[in-house]
Amino acid sequence: MRTQVAIVGAGPAGLLLSHLLARRGVDSVVIETRSRDYVEQRVRAGVLEHPTVELLREVGLAERLDREGMAHEGITLRFDGGDHRIDFADLVGNGITVYGQQEVVKDIIAARLAAGGDLRFEVSDVSIERIDDAPVVGFTGADGTRVELACDVVAGCDGFHGISRGNVGPDVFDREYPFAWLGILAKAAPTHHELVYANHANGFALYSMRSPEITRLYLQVPPETDAETWSDARIWDELGTRLGADGFTLNEGPVLEKGVTGMRSFVAEPMRRGRLFLAGDAAHIVPPTGAKGMNLAIADVGVLAEAFTAFLQHGDEAGIDAYSETCLRRVWRAEHFSWWMTSMLHNQPDGDPFTRRLQLSQLRYTVSSRAAATSLAENYVGLPHGAEL
Ligand code: FAS
Ligand code: PHB
After folding, report:
1. Atom of ligand 1 lying closest to residue 296 CA
2. Hey, whose CA ends up nearest to atom 6 of ligand 2?
3. Predicted pLDDT of residue 128
4. Is residue 327 within 8 Å of residue 300, measured between CB atoms?
């Protein structure tokens, strides 16, 4: 079997890359170990940056997003017993859209299948060979047939636990944080129209949402926390404490999903070896405090689609040669912003008083200086794709 681009992984990165390439007349095959249902139900990110929304609109993937997405013009930082709104619209002239990652995945899968795209779910025994000259991706299809997929280039979009990164053998930069997030999805109508990031003596809490009926909430917990040790009642009680503020109420409701997400900063350099190119979580991980993970994956494949097209249709190698360096500039900007938001908002387990005072000073400066608030706003809303970073 042969294609131009073999894409390993059907998360946001792999699926969007397939769509972007098809629009340019470049063939691809996407292979995915999980089922279609699994990838479409997996609850993960919730915030789309402005450049992400613009890109999805530009390529015909935003019809439901524009109908069901929730446009937000700011966020609130809650600390020192008070609320401090960061007004994105005033500071940087645009905002974010709250729309679940699983909805983006559903929309792209639907578009690819409607266009006759070749998406192979529930594959197994995936291998990537000969990446230096004539790549071959091997896999066993859901029907048990062994396939050797010859291709011109391979996109490793298989996430942090995939096999692609190991084939690149990159240098890695890795930092694990001494805390995690316990997240719940609750059938409870949001009581506030924007996100609230709370820095409380007990720890960080985040109030988010998915729709007018669904609230998304997170609590800072110790890194090895077992979600099952937190009863729903205990979660609601602690959320009420950490998010408590004058005039703020929290609707409780059935918990539809509960899980613990570890916090780490991770970058693999370079994001390429020969004809194998890494994109998304296969190459980098950010702590979710800055809502960057999925947006970074989407930015990577925007660059990769252009680079692959120039190479495969015109023999122009400038884009693929610059790919890793181009993406890493944005990756490190997002790593720094995500580390900064995480450090500013989470309690350090050792309770070091010096760190606590630095944190409060940073928070107070961020909400009292227009320059500091603008810096948070432009990073959170998303720096333009193609910007010099
Ligand atoms: P993904 O991990 O989404 O997709 C990779 C795909 O490759 C998966 O479907 C996997 O099954 C498949 N795969 C793996 N190995 C394979 C193989 N050998 N062959 C074929 N397929 C293979 N980001 C935020 O911005 N906000 C959040 O709140 C947030 N919460 C998260 C919670 C969790 C539990 C996790 C794990 C991540 C979270 N993220 C969050 C980050 C997340 O949204 C990622 O940034 C985003 O999914 C990245 O997309 P991809 O790079 O496509 O990787
Ligand atoms: C979410 O809604 O899942 C979400 C929002 C903002 C974040 C992280 C997660 O920083």
Report:
1. 45
2. 291
3. 98
4. yes
Terminal-residue alpha carbon distance, the chain: 40
What pLDDT is attached to residue 386?
86
Are both 276 and 339 inside the same structural domain?
A: yes
Claim to verify: residue 133 and residue 159 sit in the same structural domain:
yes
Ramachandran bin of 47, using left for φ above 0, alpha for ψ from -120 to 50, beta for the remaining angles: beta
113's tokens:
């299948």
Cα angle value 331/334/337 (rounded, 5°): 150
CATH number for the domain harbouring residue 192: 3.30.9.10
Q: What distance in Å separates the CA atoms of residue 193 and residue 121, rounded to the nearest whole number? A: 37
pLDDT above 90: residue 388: no
Average pLDDT of the chain?
97
Q: Are strands 214-221 and 28-31 parallel, antiparallel or unpaired?
A: unpaired
Over residues 310-345, the pLDDT tens digits come to 999 999 999 999 999 999 999 999 999 999 999 999
Residues 41 and 187 in one domain: no
Instruction: Name the phi and psi angles at 227, rounded to 5.
Output: -55, -30
Question: pLDDT value at position 79?
Answer: 96
Same domain for 203 and 144: no
Kindly give the distance from the C-alpha atom of residue 10 to the centroid of ligand 1, in angstroms, as a whole number: 9
In a domain, 308, yes or no: yes
Mean per-residue pLDDT for 16-42? 98
How far is Cα 288 from Cα 40, in angstroms, rounded to an integer? 20
| The predicted structure's pLDDT at residue 97 | 98
Catalytic residue among 197, 207, 218, 323: 197
The question of whether 380 is a catalytic residue gets the answer yes
pLDDT tens for 213-268 read 999 999 999 999 999 999 999 999 999 999 999 889 999 999 999 999 999 999 99
Domain that holds residue 216: 174-263
- Whole-prediction pTM: 0.97
Choose one of 36, 137, 207, 281 to mutate for the ligand 1 pocket test, by most ligand atoms within 8 angstroms of C-beta: 281
Strand order in the sheet with 195-200: 82-87, 74-79, 195-200, 203-211, 214-221, 171-187, 255-269, 284-285
Options 99, 288, 323, 346, the catalytic residue: 288
DSSP state of 130: -
